[in-house]
Amino acid sequence: MNMQTGRVIVPGKAAGLALVSDRPIGFLGGVDPDTGIITEPGHPLEGQCIAGRVLVFPTGKGSTVGSYTLYRLAMAGLAPAAIINARSEPIVAVGALLGNIPMLDRVDLTTLVSGARVSIDGECIRYE
Amino acid sequence: MRLTREEESMLSGDEGPAVRRAMQIVVTLGRVYEAERLLPVSSVQVAGVSYRNLGDAGLSFVRDWAAEGARVRVPTTLNPAGMDLQDWERMGISPAFAAKQHEVVQAYAAMGIETTCTCTPYYVGNVPTLGAHLAWSESSAVCYANAVLGARTNREGGPSALASAICGRTADYGLHRDDARRATHRVLVRCPVRAPHEFAALGYEIGRRVVDGVPWFSGIDLPPADGPSNEATSDRLKLLGAALASSGAVALYHVEGVTPEARQDTSLCPPDASVIIIDSLAPAIAALNGPDTEIDLVVLGCPHASLSELRAVADVLHGQRLRSALWVTTSRAVRDRALEHGDVQRIEAAGGQVVADGCVIVAPMRELGYHTLATNSAKMACYALPHAGLRVRFGSTEQCLTAALAGQWPDA
Question: Across the interface, do A10 and B28 touch by the CB < 8 Å criterion?
Fold first, then answer.
């Protein structure tokens, strides 16, 4: 079991299987708000569903109204269980806050792999 | 972060759930950027207005927040919508889109926001003073407020700007602080820059090079900028800033001897700023131009036209007949004033449309059947293809109007 600490952006506890991207994610136009599936053509996670996963990606990108996509996913029960970024920016930070999705940043993402079981408690991340 | 007693109380929900949510957003962003305190804002400009961008997710969020009791506590205006709110049918907008667009504007109106939909709020009475703290989101308006007016705002997102409007605060980081307002690059302009589209081309070139830096321009010959009342200077700087903010992510620039902070303090450009020399605008103009010669639609007024820009278009078109479609986009208030002067009538008699409230970049253009566009705005030229699927010719206002009259780009 590995352990890291990050910086808390939205506090909370969560657990789930990691879904890891080495590329930024844009939520407006990049994620279907009705299914939670990543739709951006050519994105490494294209076709994958983020619902219930611990979503790991470097940072957000794209339109700032992408925050509302995260809120809508949360209202529909399709939000990620938690979000881990290398560097937080306002789109994802505000979206995670509105959707009450636990979120950390300043994490070294290189040892996190898709499918690994991850749990988050405050600033602490434990993973396989 | 240190909060005042009043801010603590707002954050803990004493003023209701809507204010608590707004404070949570502002405080979370303060935490992300390690701000030490919040600042009161004197006005807010909210992006996320076109239904095409906001979508049902955004619409339902704005509605929910309004139902929770969200009301703005500082003067707040909206970004352009996806259509003219009154005359959308003439643009070719579908009734289904129009209905959704009206719902968005009504949801914002329920929060007490002025439903002026414009990227140039400074032409319609929202003119911040030197040093005022703001939360504006439209990137060209942010650049104008910081550079031309010497006010202070970061490039806010739609949600964070709305939160600031509801709690009256923003976090003290970035361009609110003196350090971030120092120039990173000194741009030595050694060729003439006079016509509006030349300012746009200069902004395009420099935005690409400095990305999110703060350029300091030397060698631009303009009368001092004292806000929107000096329209010849103001209109040019508006196009410069809009281009800087779209080819790059510039939120502040200085023009030696022209913009207010540069006039106050030349030490804002430190000796170690990187130097960029501009000898010619031809490469930038070429980079903004595609090969198309047939022009379906000419768009002027990006950012939204001032009264003098509308007047200049009317003067050229007076008594003539257009072959291409022409949209001159502007705010409702400026359109109303131009209507009193007869300028709207002269443009529309030639076959053009003075579109209020709306913007091509956020309109549902793919539904309207246009393929090629001509413009004098580098911002429009950058965004037309990725955002609206339109291929672009870029040139002077005169070239654009010649194209509108002939249906063809003039050098073809």
Answer: yes
Question: Considering only A62-71, B29-38, B166-175, B352-361, which range has the smallest mean pLDDT?
Answer: A62-71
pTM of the predicted structure, to 2 decimals:
0.93
Domain boundary among B148, B178, B208: B178
pLDDT tens digit string along B70-97?
999 999 999 999 999 999 999 999 999 9
Same domain, B163 and B263: no
Model confidence pLDDT, tens digit, residues B186-209: 999 999 999 999 999 999 999 999
Residue B225 Cα, gap to closest chain A Cα (Å):
31
Contacting residues for A90 by C-beta, under 8 A, at least 6 apart: A60, A64, A67, B29, B32, B156, B157, B159, B160
B54–A contact, CB cutoff 8 A: yes
User: What chain A residue is nearest to B21 in terms of C-alpha separation?
Assistant: A98
CB-based contact (8 Å) between B32 and chain A? yes
Q: Complex ipTM, two decimals?
A: 0.88
For residue B244, give both structure tokens.
Answer: 């800087």
Q: Which CATH number fits the domain that encloses residue A111?
A: 3.50.30.10
Q: Residue for token digits 């600490």?
A: A5
**Contact assessment for residue A115 and residue A17, using Cβ atoms and an 8 Å cutoff:** yes
**Residue that terminates a domain, selected from B284, B317, B351:** B284
Helix (H, G, I), strand (E, B) or coil at B50: coil
CB count in 10 Å sphere of residue A42: 6
Q: How many angstroms separate the CA atoms of B222 and B233, rounded?
A: 6
CA distance B15 to chain A (A): 18
Among residues B178, B237, B190, B184, the alpha carbon closest in space to that of B215 is found at: B184
Phi and psi at B374, nearest 5°, equal -120, 140
**Is A63 tagged catalytic?**
yes
β-bridge pairing B297-305 and B372-375:
parallel
Cα nearest neighbour of A34 on chain B: B57
Q: CB within 8 A of B126, min separation 6: which ones?
A: B43, B45, B75, B77
Number of domains in chain B: 3
